[in-house]
Amino acid sequence: MSSNFCATTRARRALTGFRLRAGVTVGCSVMFTLMSAAVRADVRFADVVHIEGDRLATFDGMPIERLGVFACDGQHCAPIPFQVDERDSVGHWVVDQGPEPNQDNPPGVLDGNDSLLFMATDAGQRTTADRLPAGQPRAEITVFDPISGAARWVYLLAFPGPAPRSATSYVDYDPSTDQVRGARVVLGFRQGVPGYLGVIDGPGAGVPNLLDRMKVRASATFLWGLIHFSRNEDDLTTQFVGWRQGPIRVIRRQRQWVRLGWGIHSVTFGSYTFFYRDFAELPVGLNLNFPPTYFFGNITIKAVLDFRDLRGWSVLAPGLAAPLPIDGIMTPEKVALNQVRGSWFALLSGQVTLVEMMNLSPSLATVRRRLLYREDAVSDPPESHRGEEPGIGYQLDAWEHTGAGAHQLESISYALPPDITVRDFMAAREAPLRVQVQPLP
After folding, report:
1. How many helices (H) and strands (E) does the chain have?
2. Which domains, ranges and CATH numbers included, belong to the chain?
């Protein structure tokens, strides 16, 4: 597949930063569309290119405001949305808004532990150095897709003063409601866990909440099985740390612990939410001073998205040949989902496909992970709306071989356009883009 744009006018539209993104077709190379839903979306629609600062040594120490990222078509080059996220001296992402902002040292300059981000589909055609805007130093960034064999390019340039920037932002955060908005969904938090999920149905349209809450239920035994106890999401204490918003992603940081009773609480664990135009990452880090089974036994953790009413949607999971309709009836096929040792599931409508993935760090390789699925009106408090229509998520148990040290769980949630199949999308996740940075004279 060629990497040239099909038409200069369409390329110009893509470079000006409209929300709807590029579509790739075999017949005419890379074809950008903004209006027609009939053109198939690019399977790379959600891919964000991350380049660590240590790969951009030519720009080390440059003020970030002087950096610009450009993509080109056959006639001209224009700035595309990008951001540089900084880490402080202990490796925490810089959040410059909120009750506990932090900063890099020195702030506002690119260094080795920072990260440059832009949308892969915003990349354009290769050009020659003499056609780029004046700026020094500069670098050519190649984005290669191993599935299609196509390459796209962007150019990073440093300017004597503030660099030209795209006015487009793909994400928005409202701290008053603790909600973030992308191209297809709005995600909101309640007491530190997701409590709002709405599908965007056109500009200016209302976004009804589909989600009752995210249920986090933990149970274990204590004192050699003499005491059994359980905790839920209402037992979480959350301290909101702060946020940072750029055109590519919003970073939201918090710390949490679980009230165990008897005047004690669990270790404090920190978590970030990284919200992009088409997906969200929710990694949770745990640093244990002793194995979790040192004091506790029979540990079971359940994390379930409790939806209010998704009748008319369908559910897809590993091992299913076709989606199952969500209709309030627990068929044998749906009951069997509770035995699937999968790491993903999908919820499909005619408007959007929601894909949820859970990843565990290698230190948790012995933990048993399986899907949970319920579709009934049975009460499982605490909840605001009785029943789960459906309730879907994961159960983690068999913690016996987990040791002390650092561990991480990560939830990744995608909002796919309806013409991208889950199979194609998952295949693309298995073949990540390849990125090369080459300084230009």
Report:
1. 3, 29
2. 8-168 (no CATH), 175-420 (2.70.98.30)
Over residues 224-251, mean pLDDT: 88
Ranges of beta strands (E only) in 264-398 are 264-265, 269-276, 279-288, 296-307, 314-316, 324-325, 344-348, 353-360, 368-376, 388-397
Distance CA 201, CA 210 (A): 13
How many angstroms separate the CA atoms of 314 and 312, rounded? 7
Q: Which residues are CB-neighbours of 381 under 8 A, at least 6 positions away? A: none
Start-to-end C-alpha separation, the chain: 29
**Whose structure tokens read 């908005």?**
181
Please state which of the ranges 181-185, 223-227, 230-234, 389-393 shows the lowest mean pLDDT. 223-227
Give the span between the Cα atoms of 40 and 342, in whole angstroms: 28
Over residues 128-157, the mean pLDDT reads 95
Query: Where are the alpha helices (H) located in 241-329, listed in sequence order?
Result: none
Q: Tokens standing for 211?
A: 């989600």
Report the C-alpha gap between 200 and 5 in whole angstroms: 29
Whether 303 and 214 have beta carbons less than 8 Å apart is answered as yes
Contact 319, 339 (CB under 8 A): no
What percent of the chain shows pLDDT beyond 70? 88
Looking at residue 257, its pLDDT comes to 84
H/E element, 336: helix 332-336
In angstroms, rounded to a whole number, what is the distance separating the alpha carbons of residues 162 and 67? 8
